[in-house]
Amino acid sequence: MISLLVILILSYLAGAFPTAILAGRLILKDDIRNHGSGNAGATNVFRVMGWEAALVVVLIDIGKGVLATLLISSLVIDTPLLSPPMMKMCAGFAAIIGHIWTVFAGFRGGKGVGTAFGVLVSLAPIPSLIALAVWLILVFTTKIVSVGSISAGISLPVSLILQRQFFKPELHIGLIIMGLILGLLIVVTHRPNIQRLIKGEENKFGSSKKKETA
Hints:
By secondary structure, the chain is an all-alpha fold. It has helices spanning 2-16, 19-27, 42-49, 51-71, 84-100, 113-123, 125-142, 145-167, 173-189, 191-199.
């Protein structure tokens, strides 16, 4: 029990590392949440500080998910309560929660897309890459990041289900459940975007409007 608790805490803290906020402090000398969309994520860093800073932020955010899933989950010092695959899933999910509700920034972090990708690419590479392809195609065709993020979140559990059904029957059912939860979580964290999409008010890349989150 102690090992599981320690793994969850360490994974949460890894995910809670406030990458975008620290980038804002270093470059803007201010909180990134006071600029652009107000979101502490790589997309807002891109809009406010440019692609170089955004690339660093997104790579670190992905790395947080990989770190928790592949490394922290293995720090078992007694008899594990869960199987190794379940430990990886729990650690990864804790990292995503940490990113979205970071203790280091008043529990107001990013939307978890980058860290979720790091977790899922560690556990299920092919469905994760399919979700990435969906994101890229829709972002570059619609010029709206939130459309790509929401669609990728929905495509992930679908890809996992199809992979288990037709190609990899041994795929852990927990991964499908996790994919469903993550897809729902991504949709929930994009509620304001969905409202703007319905109203036709969601900004596109390059727009001069001030408000867009993804």
